[in-house]
Amino acid sequence: MKKIAFMLCAAMALTFSSCSKEDNSIFPENIVIRNGYSLNDIYKQAAEKAKDNEISITLPPRVEIFMEESIEVPDGKTLVIAGDAKQPAIINAKGDFTFTNGFTLKNVIIKTDAVQEGIALFSMSEEPVLEANTKGSIVVEEPVVLENVQIAGLQTALLWDGNKKYVFQNITIDNCQVEFDINGSMKQAAINLNYGGAMNLTIQNSTMWQKGDKNFTYFTKYNNSVVPDNAFEADDWKNVEDASWSVTYKNNTFYKLINTQWHNGGRISQQYKKMNVDIENNIWSECCKDILRRIVNSKSAADWKSFVCNQNTWVKDGKFDNAANYNKTEGIDLTTEPAFVAVPEDTDEPNFKPTGSQQVQYKTGDPRWWKK
Q: What is the pLDDT at residue 227?
């Protein structure tokens, strides 16, 4: 199982130490965390001690704990869980998380083999607590952050909006590994914002792949409500435009992920003159076709507020996407097979280090594999 790291911005960090499983019947004042302990119990104690809107949990190095059932974070509170960057904590999850606001997970390994039901590992509440604006948008100002997190065997979506019009100001996935294991029937989207969307989506330095016999229809799915004119009143635009709207994919590796379209019909781009796009040094191998076209909704580089697209590989079944119609910048598309060292079909320990000549020349994809 790979390491998963989550970013901690602790407003009221709790201190934990490692002990044996047999000794865990009583929490000392500082909440001791022991191997074999329950994340559900830890969460309850942390929530009781929190003095503001943030529930913060700091996990000791190498601790291995269990999540026996789902955790729901109520009342618009945020949850921050952070392990040690060099020796991440391990969470054996049998349940999922439901939030009413943003959340941060950093430096954690999540084993999700037992999570076979539900729609997503991370969901927003179907009963929103945050107040909707006059357009009906439930604006989530607190960020959603997954940093240095490793997730294995995920049989559901990664993120779901609870079929409510949540508009996330910032979703960031950085330095993560996510192994999906979709079987039996198709799933709608890996990041399923079916009723809302994200103002700023950033995915960087990460690897995601699919090993099951089925797949997702989309990687990201937004509703038309996420476009600026439908999400906010005109009077709100001064502040909203300052915050910017963006899509960023940088230094990622995607393998056998998504069956039909990377993004649903270009919902990201419906207000393209207000959008910043940065797509660089990624490898899409054996994913769907027309990836750039789906992200930018057939708009060319000159149409956007800003647009960078360079040194990407998009190849499926030996055929390379012709992205030239949409990548009208000085950027180039790579046209050699990435030829990874070891793919999931051949090993339980895949190594996505590319050996293709152009990928080697430009050192593209998730940077972790170049360190192997």
A: 66
